[in-house]
Amino acid sequence: MITKPVKTYDAEEVIRLDFTFTIHYGSPMPESLQIIKDAINGCEVSREHQSTKVNIQKFGKSGIEVLIYFYFDPKSGMLPQTAKGKIQEAIFKALHDHGIVIPYPHSSITVDHNDKNLIGTALYISKEG
Fold first, then answer.
1. What is the percent of the chain where pLDDT is above 90?
2. Hey, where are the domains in the chain?
3. Residues 84/46, Cβ–Cβ less than 8 Å
4. What single DSSP character describes residue 96?
5. How many CA atoms lie within 13 A of 69 on its CB side?
6. How many CA atoms lie within 13 Å of 123's alpha carbon, on the beta-carbon side?
7. According to the CATH classification, is domain 10-129 in 3.30.70.100?
8. How far is CA 111 from CA 118, 119, 121, 123, in A?
9. What whole-number percentage of the chain has pLDDT above 70?
10. 107: exposed, middle or buried (C-beta count within 10 Å: 0-12, 13-18, 19+)?
């Protein structure tokens, strides 16, 4: 019994692949989007360049999330995951070359100095250390 459908791309001339990519909030947005699009279209795995799309998807925790669509030739002998990886490498290099920061996920922790449980825990830990 088949529980998951199997997708083959042999009959397709091109297929659309997509993924999200995060850009730092301080980045120049129109320039960054164009650099990403140029990097995708300059990559050997990308096809139908006029259909490449780079759009802001949402404002995330660590930066602005960009949704990327590009087309790929499934008959090239390359797996779609490999094609995405090559595109991501090209984007990384292009942004790095232009000094545009790719943020890393991080969180800020704020300590409430009036929290008696937290103060007790901190004192306990400092006594052991």
1. 52
2. 10-129
3. no
4. H
5. 11
6. 7
7. yes
8. 8, 10, 12, 14
9. 74
10. exposed
3-state class (DSSP) for residue 104:
coil
What phi, psi does 71 have (nearest 5°)? Answer: -110, 150
Measured distance CA(13)–CA(74) in Å, rounded: 7
Q: 117 or 88: whose pLDDT is higher?
A: 88
pLDDT of residue 102: 86
Q: In the numeric block, which tokens belong to residue 66?
A: 């960009």
Query: Chain centroid to CA 19: how far?
Result: 7
Q: Where are the beta strands (DSSP E) in the chain?
A: 15-23, 46-47, 53-59, 64-72
Least confident of 10-19, 20-29, 55-64: 10-19
- Alpha carbons 98 and 66: distance in angstroms, whole number: 17
Per-residue pLDDT, 89: 95
Q: Which of 75, 80, 88 is nearest to 16 (CA)?
A: 80
| pTM greater than 0.85 | no
DSSP class of residue 101 equals -
